[in-house]
């Protein structure tokens, strides 16, 4: 057994752990980083990167059949599904060096490729090493939750960890779960030529604004994706190539099955009780991301809040302050955006309209602008969509965008909320013409329109000034 003494031990080399390790090492701390699986974690290997790469391939396939309104004869694309998966692999391989053991060792981090578990309040064991550290950061992420559906264990199924290795194109992909994973994969596979059925126990994209989600679902249905809502998958049967899912009294049959019903925090291997770290289904943290053990922090998916790469990165940046400098830092959530990369994209930051009305009642004004009124959207035939901004006392408290480039557009509202900017600051911005970026400015304009153009007081003032102006 080799004993190592260090300032900081980071457990998990995904989006959160890598942010902490890179920042701390570059600022002079001695850092040990443990990773039991692949460097880069879920996002690089099984999540964001492969999903966005497959979506990109699907977008190309879709475009080949969608040129008619532009005067371009549609053709049925010849999809080589295995080659699309090669593209997915290439995207992962291109990004992998940034998250690699070599790069982190180059930054001065000691990387140990093994799973870690607490053996005391101050020590973690990983293989042949026992690491005693001043501070620990748990950044072990999450894994696909596989529900105990009768029959599932006897049938071949995929999760987000295995679907990227599938090289034969599914004839008919059954997807259980209509959250972001389910819907992104549904549209991508439909566009790559698969028949797709989504079985959703409640409402598909149910965590998002219902009006915006409905627009996405309408598009997916229009592209041939069958979406069955309000029915739980109750039983699974069959074998490779012929699988049946029974749900709500109906039997859905397909060739392949993807389970996408949410995540479970990776805490089972950690022996958290040995460290006095409280946990339920995730590690319990306070607003400063501290656990019940004052030497131990938790960041990212394992901390049980919003489960996104940029949130794990944000957490990582935050905990460096107390760990390195002893300064307090509180995690805020109001400005954290998320996006679902369907076409149209669906993005949210802060409160939805329903949440804003519940919290602020009549004090909320909803400023809205439609893509159909944006000239660039018209030129590109991307007119499906809208932006809604929830405003209280002149400041945005939330924004919902559904439509082309929604994920890019939402960033401005995160900036506004993070810095408590007023709507006047967004209205003062000048966006180049013609861009989708104008949508943000026009939404701010829509907030002021009734105040300026429908106000008798403003009309009276203008009338008065005009009488006296030389
Ligand atoms: C299909 C899919 C698509 C997604 N798309 C997006 C997207 O577009 N945008 C977005 O923001 N988010 C997306 N996400 C979510 C995103 O991947 C996660 O929020 C993010 O990876 C969380 O980072 P993390 O550092 O908390 O955990 P992870 O990235 O999961 O990293 C945790 C690491 O810890 C390791 N580990 C676990 N236990 C131990 C242990 N005991 N000892 C040592 N190592 C351990 C694991 O092997 C893993 O490498 C997607 C997720 C999925 C599944
Ligand atoms: N674009 C992105 O940023 C992105 C993409 C994919 C995933 N993610 C992250 O990964 C997380 C997990 O995604 P997800 O889609 O697996 O989870 P999710 O929890 O968001 O959605 C799962 C869905 O499955 C349904 N469900 C649960 N049990 C069911 C059953 N037995 N039968 C039918 N339906 C059932 C739920 O009602 C829910 O709508 C997301 O919440 C998000 O944080 C992000």
From TrEMBL:
Cystine residue pairs: 43-48
Organism lineage string: Bacteria, Pseudomonadati, Pseudomonadota, Alphaproteobacteria, Rhodobacterales
Protein name: FAD-dependent oxidoreductase
Signal peptide (from-to): none
Annotated Gene3D superfamilies: 3.30.390.30, FAD/NAD(P)-binding domain
Co-factor note (free text): Binds 1 FAD per subunit.
Residues noted as binding NAD(+) in the record, renumbered to the chain: 177-184, 200, 262
Co-factor(s): FAD
An example molecular function term from Gene Ontology annotations: oxidoreductase activity, acting on a sulfur group of donors, NAD(P) as acceptor
